[in-house]
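Contributing new records

If you add data, match the layout below exactly. Sequence lines come first and carry their own label; structure lines follow with theirs. Keep one chain per record. Anything else will be rejected by the validation script.
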Amino acid sequence: SVFEISCATTFLSCVYTQLLICDLGIQPEKILGFSGGEIYSLLALGIWDIDPYLKKAQATSIFENEADGEFLAVQKALGIPGPIHWETHLLNLPEQKILAAIERHPGVFLPMVNSPRECVIAGLRSACSGLISELDAHSTQIGMPQVYHSNILAPLAKELQNLWNNPVTLPFNL
């Protein structure tokens, strides 16, 4: 599930961060995170307390049923019944080329633009396949469903804000 992947990634981020700080003596001057990396950075550096965050994350259905599992948020947003077959793909194409074609493929979203020539698309399996085929693009399927960074989770905005609104403690001079 997305939650399990997130927990594993958080754990690895914490381990590597502690190795860099404690064992190698590297003190960060700034932190940077992209997408989930923002959360992992805050947790790994102790800026957010991990225990209350994980308790809140476990108490929500977002990671298990809304943005994964049964994809209830997708069913509601697109007005389709389950089961939902959701995929995420990395495409080595410019954003403009994808956006020019995406309108013809309802159920596909452009959640991330990583660089001028690398984007992430996510959506219903058949819609993603159609877009990739039309663009004659090489794609790499990513094993984590990417429902985030789209308007699909807009109805859950307050719940997400609560999850990501946590006390901050600066453990060192950033």
